[in-house]
Amino acid sequence: MSAAASDVVIAGVGMHPFGRFEGVSTTDMGVVAVRAALDEAGIGKGGFQAAFCGTVYGGVATGHKVLSRLGMTGMPIVDVEAGCASGGAALMLAAGAIRAGQYDTVLVFGTEKMPKGIIRSSFFEQWQEEAGLAATPAFFGLRAQRLCMTSGVTKDHLARVVVKNRRNGAANSDAMYQKETSVEEVLASRVVCEPLHLFMLCSPNEGAAALVLRRADLAAEAPKPVTLAAAVLRSHIPGPVLSESTPLSGLANDEVPAPTTIAATAAYEEAGLGPQDLDVVECQDTDAARELGSCEELGLCEPGGSAAFLDSGAMELGGRLPVNPSGGLLSKGEPLGASALGQIVELVRQLRGECGPRQVVGARTALSHTVGRGANAGVVILIR
Amino acid sequence: MRVMVREGLYTDGDPPALLASRCGTCGSVLFPRVDACTYCATEGPEPLDLTGPGTLWAWTAVTTPPPGYQGQVPFGMGVVELPEGVRVITRLTESDPGALEAGQAMELHIVTLHRDAEGQAVVTYAFAPVEAS
Known about the structure:
heterodimer; A: Peroxisomal Thiolase, Chain A, domain 1; 2 domains; two-stranded antiparallel sheet; B: mainly beta; 10 strands
């Protein structure tokens, strides 16, 4: 496609692998990812006019600390917190600023080092923690149970989502778990919150990812630029009791759309395409049921149709619409501020045809999705 | 003596009640009690006490102590739908998910979470299956 001046392209990407890295700081990981993205884009000091940094646990001036280490400061550096969708929020701000003519090149990165175990979130009030109601996996379990009731999803389906993603992750050197598993092994892992077993939940962890966004006409000479066709962030409309907004009550009304659906609808409109046009998807799979629910909320299958969608083989590598070819968060783990941008790095590499054994052959149109507490839902559409 | 895990959420009477609001404009029922309607932004919804019983809409059990929690595991957690048209996130007295069924009748109880430094019981709201009479 031809590059209009208002188009925004991704001219370079970089990653620090996701995992556990003792002795490596949030800053260290950010430096690795940013340096790689700038190298790919062929720009250095003075080459970008603003930087947005996604992080949740990084603390004060996380972005400044990374860019100080690289000797690249002076431009606005803004840390962005939007829970699981922090990277998507940073991307939306950067893309909007370029489209508005404020900047022509913007650095977007995310870096995170999370404590082990169940995420302790300052979202909850002290009494909620004391009452046991700050149990994040329990909310995942309740959503999973509702999906089982409404969509015919079984524990076998949930286990097969994990097996699929771990198989993909085994071919991803940036993933935390690079080992395949089996339905039997998943179901033999301990129950954390029914119906979810340990292997069906992603691990909060550490990592970083970075992108260079440029006005399309400036990046014409960059190697294989990928067009950012939509970068949307939305919050929730109240009503669903199990929304990622994590309320204490909701309405007895199942008609209110999920934040993911609201964001996806806007993203499809912005990109001028629909779910039927997609070739590859990276979506939120903080647990196995979340991936299936994401497919429904993104319109990749009918509402209530995610079990049949999985059964059809469509979501597998080589299927009609591969979902989480990177291995997803179930393989990579979830460093909150970096996870959304990690998806974009994967999709840019997929669209460039660089993914080796996990390559989605001929992929031209891609969607990434994150959703989390707030609620915040981010949907990004990329076109080669 | 027993102390509430947080004042203003429920009454510890017989029967107990959840302290909620009903919006005079859109009719939505909100728990906990609010200053402005979450759904339509109207200020000053009317107070409403929810006494149940309700029906079980979703449930699970928490098997690992979550952050900041000092009580026993496993414990039940779920969603109960009340006749006023509101679904409430709540602890459940039943910690075996296999012992519960969708749509079964649930009643409001006040239960002990743990004892504080002075030895007083810290209590909160929870729903329990209605025993067949």
